[in-house]
Target: Secreted protein
Amino acid sequence: MNTIFRKSMLSVAGLAFAGGVFAGPIAHVATPSMDARPVAVVQADKPDTSKLIPHGTQGDQSHIDLNDEQTANAKAIIAATKKAGLPERAAVISIATSLQESKLENLGHLGDMNDHDSLGLFQQRPSSGWGTPEQITDPEYSTTAFLKGLRQVDGWQDMPLTEAAQTVQVSAYPDAYAQWEQQAADLVGQYWNS
Model:
């Protein structure tokens, strides 16, 4: 009889414990905590690019889906910018320029479709002193050459992107760089710290 009584008591105690466990936390979880901020989790997935676009974007923005080669070229531009000791904004200007000039494709000689002797990510010309064809088609070299030109522009850090890019590139379509600013900033935000 003593054994039956002990089992009954343990069963009642077990039910009381189980009921407390299930009722307690469920009631507590049902009341949201004031510290819970699911928005922060969403924001962590999307980098803050406002500092990368200090003037806001100008005009309609374009966007292309990048393949592995184009992504690698964007990463190479970022790496060269970091190696040069320049800030993220310089990488945004560089990537936007390359998106306009080559869609981030390291273009070789295109025959009759070539714009003079323009080559590489930035469509730089050997005949204009940017380097040899081999140098210009090296992503690190071409980016470094572009950044060297950018550094020579007084106040480039405070200029709208299209003005800074145009001062280096001297394009026939100076406003075309602006359309790539958001995608360039997104790429820098995504890969700068990777």
The mean pLDDT is 80. The two ends are 70 Å apart (CA to CA).
